[in-house]
Amino acid sequence: MKKLSQLFNKKSALEFKNYFFDEILSLAVGWIAGLLSVNILTFFIEKRSWLNLWGILSNKVVVEDNTYTISVWIVTAIIGFIVMKLVTRFTRLLLNDQESEKEASHFTE
Q: Staple partner for 34: which of 10, 42, 43, 80, CB 3.0–4.6 Å?
């Protein structure tokens, strides 16, 4: 039976780090950005309900329930996707930069 240290060598640790930063971190940041965008959207629009007398007492833009739901989904998806792609691109550039520095240091030694 192999030792645990042999199973988790440096290469698999590097692969896990790359996967973590590339996928999991970008998905989490994109999801959080999507949630924050919904929170910001609720400052500007409101759905029609009896609490605001169907829009008479509201200071915000009042929309129907279906329109509100669709706009929240669209804003969440678009902003979350854009942020996820930006974080993915940034982490890939950062990880590639670190790997190229390590390779350059191996050649100089």
A: 80
Pairwise CA distance, residues 67 & 16, whole Å: 42
**Could you tell me the CA-to-CA distances from 87 to 23, 28, 32, 91, 109 in Å, in that order?**
9, 10, 12, 6, 33
Three-class SS of residue 88? helix
Domain ranges of the chain: 31-94
Query: How far is Cα 56 from Cα 1, in angstroms, rounded to an integer?
Result: 74
pLDDT in tens, 38-87: 999 888 988 888 888 878 888 888 988 899 999 999 999 999 999 999 98
2's torsion region: left (phi>0), alpha (psi -120 to 50) or beta?
beta
Q: How confident is the model at residue 18 (pLDDT cuts 50, 70, 90)?
A: confident
